[in-house]
Design goal:
heterodimer; A: 48% helix; 0% strand; globular; B: alpha/beta; eight-stranded mixed sheet; 9 helices; 18% strand
Chain lengths: 83, 302
């Protein structure tokens, strides 16, 4: 499974979207567009992504642009994996 | 028929102020299988897990266990403000509750050591309390937090996350840590956290408590259960790494991962029936050492 597919799975499970997230594309807007994505969900998302991908997100990396779209989030995770 | 739930307020021992809510689920049937103390997670996870904790407690009671749930200082219906609570207070609350269970079920220790059932940060409390209980205990760890430092980090991040939509986020966690270090309380996600609790949580590490039984006896049991939404759930790498440590410390550690939602953090309140089943199965079966043919010192007394 590629990174985007895994990120979408994590999104779907963390936000209890019932499969909706599996149909998102890179252009799908996240922060501000999905009501389920509140601050608690953002933190759960970060934690699950850290555990699932074995990456560490520094405090100063938590920034609105990361969660703007599926594409930006996948890019963030991809960047961490490549590092 | 399972006897009715007892809900009451209990004063802490040793003259500590206030009172704690105790929910006691008496065991069904004439033959008790043992007693279980539930230690809840921190902050929102406590709320999100209430339903699962209730489902499991009732299932254990129906299966013949007495179960005690306690609200820690500053949490739920217990007295005190979270801002005034310390990790030390919480360990004391756990010890008081364990003592209450023990006096309610006298003479059980050797035959049926009580189970300390800790969920997430509650698992840190369970191991910390077990280290201070001179009698043998058994541990039931649900998705244990391995390092309090990580739990504190995730909690403080909530504030940064809350500001994301406004373009904020950077420097927020650093600011919160500076406040705590300076002795000030901080407000995150509607919770007021004080320096004493932050420090204690930050320093807490999940470690196998000292074994209280003689080397020739059956090793004490620790049941470690995780839940995840993967198709073929496996215990996390960190959990597997803990195996050797716990065994070296003299514990019989059993680990299992079951399929289900991370109910302590999901958006909606969700159930994990597989976890209830796995917990019941683990607590009602003889331990691995007993199954391996060593004498099982746990006899169900008439």
């Amino acid at each position: 499974m590629d990174v985007q597919a895994q990120v979408l799975q994590v999104l779907d499970q963390t936000l209890s979207l019932g499969g909706r997230a599996l149909r998102f594309t890179a252009d799908t807007h996240l922060l501000g567009a999905i009501p389920e994505l509140d601050s608690m969900a953002v933190v759960s998302l970060l934690t699950t992504l850290e555990e699932r991908f074995g990456i560490v997100v520094d405090d100063d990396e938590i920034d609105g642009t990361t969660f703007a779209t599926v594409g930006s989030l996948v890019g963030f995770v991809g960047g961490k994996l490549a590092a | 028929m399972t006897p009715a739930l007892e809900a009451f307020f209990q004063a802490p021992r040793g003259g500590r102020p206030g009172q704690r809510l105790y929910l006691h689920h008496p065991a069904a049937g004439a033959h008790s299988r043992g007693a279980v103390l539930y230690l809840h997670p921190f902050a929102e996870a406590m709320n999100k897990s209430r339903r699962m904790a209730a489902l499991q407690s009732r299932a254990l009671a129906a299966a013949g266990f007495s179960v005690l749930q306690v609200d820690l200082l500053g949490c739920g219906d217990s007295s005190g403000d979270l801002a005034d609570a310390s990790w030390h207070d919480w360990v004391h609350d756990a010890l008081d509750a364990a003592a209450w269970l023990a006096q309610r079920h006298p003479g059980r220790h050797a035959a049926m050591p009580i189970w300390l059932w800790g969920h997430r940060e509650g698992a840190l409390l369970a191991t910390a309390a077990a280290a201070q209980i001179p009698e043998p205990v058994q541990l039931l760890l649900w998705q244990p937090v391995l390092q309090g430092r990580q739990a504190l980090q995730q909690f403080l991040r909530l504030k940064a996350a809350a500001q994301l939509a406004d373009g904020g986020g950077k420097g927020v966690v650093e600011g919160l840590r500076a406040d705590l270090a300076a002795g000030r309380t901080v407000e995150v996600a509607g919770y007021t956290l004080g320096p004493a609790l932050a420090q204690g949580l930050d320093a807490a590490v999940l470690a196998p408590p000292p074994v209280r039984t003689a080397p020739a006896d059956t090793p004490p049991r620790a049941v470690w259960l995780e839940v995840n939404a993967q198709p073929d759930p496996q215990p996390s790498p960190a959990a597997q790494a803990a195996q050797a440590r716990w065994q070296a410390a003299g514990w019989a550690l059993e680990q299992q991962a079951v399929a289900g939602p991370a109910f302590w953090q999901t958006q909606e309140i969700e159930d994990a029936p597989a976890l209830v089943e796995a917990t019941l199965a683990a607590l009602t079966r003889p331990g691995p050492a007993a199954m391996a043919g060593m004498p099982d010192t746990r006899q169900v007394a008439a």
